[in-house]
Design brief:
The complex is a heterodimer of chains A (134) and B (231). Chain A is α+β, with helices and mostly antiparallel strands and 134 residues long. Chain A is built from 4 helices and 5 strands. In chain A, strand 2 and strand 3 form a beta hairpin. By secondary structure, chain B is an alpha+beta fold. The chains are: A alpha+beta (134), B alpha+beta (231).
């Protein structure tokens, strides 16, 4: 029932609207009730509305408004990238990107692979059914 | 912009229409006085070409009654359609219209009319050496190695319709003869198809699953959004 993810300094969030859509950013300061100052190794530090952020489980240990170098070091120390890519949310996004970038030929090969897999599964299932029936 | 040669300007334009130096100043600057002095007081001129004797024009025998307007001359030469950057020789294309719609086909070259020369290959999907308009085609990013194919003899004339000799007006004979002639493809064209396809097939079989890919037709399935698909 209680809240678990807080919009606090050090919270890693995903931008879900606007120019920086899809980026992982760190909340570096709170401006007011609606906006946060947000920073990431590959972007200029800027303010963003909380509505444009989706909070993640990851939190790093930083002081209020750290210098870029300190931010990068803290992100490395906490292994934000690694944790994100291992999390189920992160993995889902990676899969989505991969699927969107598939070539027409890739999609064809994927279809053949799916059919093959389904065939193998069906065979095994038929075997098991036979065993239980007999 | 064309590269400007950085030479010193003798007579710069100060304001549009107003130059720095006067006529006499320019005469001095260009050194025309020195050239004249060198050539004995006169500016050297090359001899005029001897005038050709005037041709005698006879008055015309016939004047037309009305003035006919001459159409304006047009020296425009049409260029072949600009080929999309995604379409290079060896690209697999998806044909979108006509008898072979949905077929995945190998692009060979662009002909001088702008149409694309394309082949199935015939054995793989039944598409022969054929011309296709670029507008009715999706270029995929799959490429086939086309280096072993000689395409020099294929141009628009190769695909021109065979001109039939004029038939005499016997109705029943007319229809029968027509039907028989249309069905046959000359053996030469079949040989050309084989010549192009054999080297292509080798390149295609080298890539796993490419042959079945070319044999299958493309279609939009549920959930596929063409503007979001990467081809």
């Amino acid at each position: 029932m209680t809240f678990k993810r807080f919009a606090e300094i050090g919270r890693v969030a995903l931008v879900n609207y606007g120019e920086d859509y899809g980026k992982l950013v760190v909340i570096v300061d709170i401006v007011d009730q609606n906006r946060a100052l947000v920073d990431s190794p590959d972007m200029v530090r800027s303010q963003i509305n909380f509505k444009r952020l989706s909070l993640t489980d990851i939190k790093i240990d930083i002081k209020r408004v750290p210098k870029k170098k300190a931010l990068v070091a803290a992100m490395e120390a906490a292994d934000v990238k690694g944790k994100w890519e291992k999390s189920s949310w992160g993995r889902k996004l990676i899969v989505q990107k991969r699927r969107a970038s598939l070539n027409d030929f890739d999609r064809f090969k994927l279809m053949l692979a799916k059919i093959k897999k389904a065939g193998v599964v069906r065979q095994e299932l038929a075997k098991l059914k036979k065993e239980t029936a007999s | 912009m064309a590269p400007k040669s950085v030479k010193s300007i003798r007579n710069p334009e100060l304001i549009p229409g107003v130059r720095k130096c006067s006529r006499s100043q320019m005469y001095h600057k260009r050194g025309l006085w020195a050239i004249k002095a060198k050539n004995g007081g006169k500016f050297p001129q090359h001899e005029k070409a001897a005038a050709a004797p005037a041709v005698e024009e006879k008055p015309p025998k016939f004047y037309p009654a009305d003035d006919i307007k001459k159409p304006l001359s047009n020296t425009r030469k049409a260029k072949p359609t600009k080929l999309r950057a995604s379409i290079t020789p060896g690209t697999v294309l998806i044909v979108l219209a006509g008898r072979f719609k949905g077929k995945r086909v190998v692009f060979l070259k662009q002909l001088s009319s702008g149409l694309l020369l394309v082949t199935g290959p015939y054995k793989v999907n039944g598409v022969p050496l054929r011309r296709v308009n670029q507008a009715y085609v999706i270029g995929t990013s799959t490429k086939v190695d086309i280096s072993g194919v000689n395409l020099e003899k294929y141009d628009d004339k190769y695909f021109a319709k065979q001109v039939e000799k004029k038939q005499k007006k016997g109705e029943s004979e007319f229809f029968e003869a027509d039907k028989k002639e249309k069905n046959e493809l000359p053996a030469e064209k079949k040989e050309d198809q084989k010549a192009v396809d054999t080297s292509l097939l080798k390149a295609i079989e080298a890539v796993p699953e490419l042959k079945t890919y070319l044999g299958a037709r493309f279609s939009l399935k549920a959930g596929m959004k063409p503007h979001e698909l990467v081809f």
